[in-house]
Amino acid sequence: MVYAPIVARLIDTCPHTLTGHLVLDAGAGTGVATAPLTTRGARLIAVDASLDMLRWQADQRPPAVAADLRALPLCDATVDDAIAAFVLNHLPDPVRGLTELARVTRPGGTVLAAVYSTANHSHARDRVDQIATAAGWRPPAWYLNLRATTVPLLGSADTMAAAATQAGLTGIVAVEQRVDVGIDRAEQLVAYRLGQAPFTTWLEQLELARTEDLRRQAIAAVTPLMYAYRPQVVFLVARSRPHWGWSATSIDSRSVEHLLWLTWLSWSDTLVERLMAGRLKFAMQGARHGKSSGGRRLGSPRQRVIGPRQCVGGDGHLNAPRAQAVAHTTGALTVTVRAPVSL
To answer: Cα-atom radius of gyration of the chain, to the nearest Å?
Structure first.
């Protein structure tokens, strides 16, 4: 209801056409950005920390992989552009997230981001919170911590621009704007607010009749205060600097599948066991010392094995050859590991 118009506005700020471009949707969630990006002719890779969110209507969504935005499973300059809508404000170190977006975006590619401004206030929305509090709701600790410590890090145009500068981005434009999200009636605002994460667990514990009574009370209390809800949002438009090292060439011509490579082979023995339990065969040959890996753990815990060329692992060494892997989120995560390929 609220996020779609804001994401559409964010995409509209892109300074060039997205037709044929490979775009990283970072913090994709349930795929709010999918439709507007594909409408503009973009091809997508979705990344989110939550596998459950990526599974939402997975058959209608682009290839996706669950990963931390601060350690993206992509080689340098893998995508043409990147978008991060309402995810950087959940990071305690957003500069790391922006740095990763800059790293995986080709030189000169666009990085787009949006977060709520700390100046975003609504008396009507606050009234919904007051009604819920009177009914027994208490803000979760994670929510209070997020608002107090994390959200302010990018909560203004100045702080967003400063973070983008620290991340090595260039051509930085950061602005705060109010966005028409189509919420003009009390019942719309109440449905939006009570549908947000801080209320989910509490509402699930209430009886249906009590929940409906709460909604009626909130609507009655908000109606006299109601005006068009126009959240204030911080938008970022920036460009990736040239990478001094590996860079991709002719990425546009490659299948999106070939850009999703298995990255966390060295997460833990548990992951390897799960892969083996799924009757997947590892054909990792010619590891760093020229020996067959035979499915053992490879390299350091931060090793990245993703992209159309040889990739540098977390220890700074070149890992060659690579193992091609494709990850999809269709009901359950399916990983296919093939033998090394020559490109």
So the answer is: 22
